[in-house]
UniProtKB/TrEMBL annotation:
Alphabetically ordered keywords of this record: DNA-binding
Gene3D superfamilies recorded: Tetracycline Repressor, domain 2
Protein name: TetR/AcrR family transcriptional regulator
Domain HTH tetR-type: 20-80
Record-annotated DNA-binding residue ranges: 43-62
């Protein structure tokens, strides 16, 4: 009599961390911790518990915790630095258009991430090398804004001050975790533009009701 065999159920791919838990998944989870709790809380054991795997799973994808840290910084460089660096060598510019393009890197948040920027800035307080890199990025962003104001017709010193005011306003808004209704943010955008750009340049998208109020 033939022996009856019982087929084993197919293994669930979700049960194998090496099939589904890749390097990108670890980086994504670590980035969330970094943004919410800071770099000191980005720990192998914490991440392993989150994924319900052993530390060995981490070392299957990373050589060390520093390797993960480096990848987090690469995320910041790609999303928050590269868009500005792409404008470093642009020379023949329209001031208002260049200003608008720079500001929209922040406003559109595609791919710029305010939370990641703040987290890396906080991280930089514990690392001199990273501190220098963050400072260099701050200088580049301000320089680009200054270049826009110079192209609008402002002098060197006033362009620098206006660039700093623009940049400090944007970074300060993120640092305060200031929340604003998206519709109100869009409505206020041109008014911020009028304050930051005037008197040599008129914000082209200023709402009519603001202009009417001003002219009464």
């Amino acid at each position: 009599m033939a022996r009856k065999t019982i087929a084993k159920p197919a293994s669930d791919p979700k049960s194998s961390p090496r099939q589904t838990l890749n390097r990108e998944a670890w980086v994504k989870a670590a980035r969330k911790v970094l943004e919410k709790r800071g770099i000191a809380e980005v720990k192998i054991d914490r991440l392993a518990r989150h994924f319900k795997v052993t530390r060995g799973s981490f070392y299957f994808h990373f050589s060390s915790l520093k390797d993960l840290h480096d990848e987090l910084l690469n995320e910041w460089r790609r999303a928050n630095c590269a868009p500005f660096e792409a404008k470093r060598d642009v020379t023949d510019i329209d001031g208002l258009q260049f200003f608008t393009e720079i500001v929209h890197i922040w406003v559109d948040e595609k791919p710029f991430s305010p939370l990641l920027d703040l987290a890396v800035r906080d991280w930089s307080r514990t690392s001199k090398a990273l501190g220098r890199e963050v400072a260099a990025m701050d200088d580049l962003r301000i320089t680009l804004l200054q270049r826009a104001f110079r192209a609008m017709g402002y002098g060197p010193e006033e362009s620098l001050v206006r660039a700093r005011l623009t940049y400090f306003h944007q970074i300060g808004q993120y640092a305060l975790s200031f929340k604003e209704d998206p519709e109100q943010r869009r409505r206020h955008g041109p008014i911020y533009g009028k304050v930051l750009l005037a008197p040599l340049v008129q914000e082209p998208n200023l709402p009519k009701d603001w202009q009417d109020t001003e002219n009464k």
